[in-house]
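call fold(seq) -> tokens
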Amino acid sequence: MAVHYLVAHGRSRLAGLVWVDHSPRFYRTPDWPYALFGDLMPRQFDETIRGLWHDRGAAARDLLGVMFQTPEDWMYPEVMKTPTEVAAAMLAAVAATDLRPLLPAIDLPTLFVNGRHSVVPCEVGEWLADNVPQARRVVLEAGHGPFWDDSTGFNEALRSFVASLEDPTAA
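ret:
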């Protein structure tokens, strides 16, 4: 994750950060009302991880359906290239991590891109933009993969953001 890189290495080699439809916290807690799907709890996500081990093919198809509004046939064999143990460990690690304490380390221009129809509630992007000093936010008519579901809108937002890094008056 880019935030971990930023904390570990500083911003000396970075001009900006693009954060694409990711929540700093997956689960609902008393201090975080923006759980994935609106109400995700650890027990539910454990079912997803077990599904990866029990029936990797079905779980992979389900996850693709969650990530993209219209998954393409070629995506399934690509996802299946990741070994099950790696996919399960990676997904579990990301879900268990609370990135909110690391957000103060983001001391560079940041673009938050959210899909309006994503499993990540739109309020997450708003919260992030409000809690990261040099942030701006774009919401696209997309799911969890806005770069795929609305590639034109995503690329326009990215180009505009990069241009603003090169010329701060372009923002």
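The chain has a mean pLDDT of 91.
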